[in-house]
Amino acid sequence: MRRPLSSAARQRGFTLVEVAIVAAIVLIAAVVGVPAINGYVIENKVPSVAQDLQRFVVRMKASTQGLGEAPYTGSTTALLGNALRGSGVITVSGTGAAAVVRHGLGASDGRITLAADTITVAGDSFAIGLDKVNEAACPGLAAAMQRVSERIVVNGDTVKEPAAGGATGAYDAVAADSACVAGDANAFTFTAR
């Protein structure tokens, strides 16, 4: 016959050593897992950000058809901010010239800018720039934007250039991958006309 346990035996808890070991295991798992989870979250935002930017590019092209040789003269980030204000992924703060557009693909202060650019003549194209993009979004972002961009520059390296005679050039995926750097240090310029 078994003797009933005393109240002291029934209330035995964990020792300080056992709690410390479990805490160390949880801490190690967090240190290893959090960066991987962050990269996964950023990588999953790329299609949504690219879709919003592609939609903006198409709208810009459609709204400037027939406006002459330099239809994008005067294009600014304020225009981009107004167009992307309702985005679920891209955030816009401020209005007009004070508009700040953030992409969410890396550092919290990573921005998207818009300016008139030059492919053949001043104002015949516009450039969308992104800074402080995480490596998890690179080169996926460049690949997603290649269909609507004439020129793509990743960290100063041109990975797509218009072909002679205004024809669409070829996108170089290997060059885009090689241009990407670790961390939230990637910068992109997508030029369209």
From TrEMBL:
This is Type 4 pilus major pilin. Gene3D superfamilies: TcpA-like pilin. Coiled coil: none annotated. Residues 106-192 form the Type 4 secretion system PilS N-terminal domain. The chain crosses the membrane at residues 12-37. Keywords: Membrane, Transmembrane, Transmembrane helix. It comes from the Bacteria.
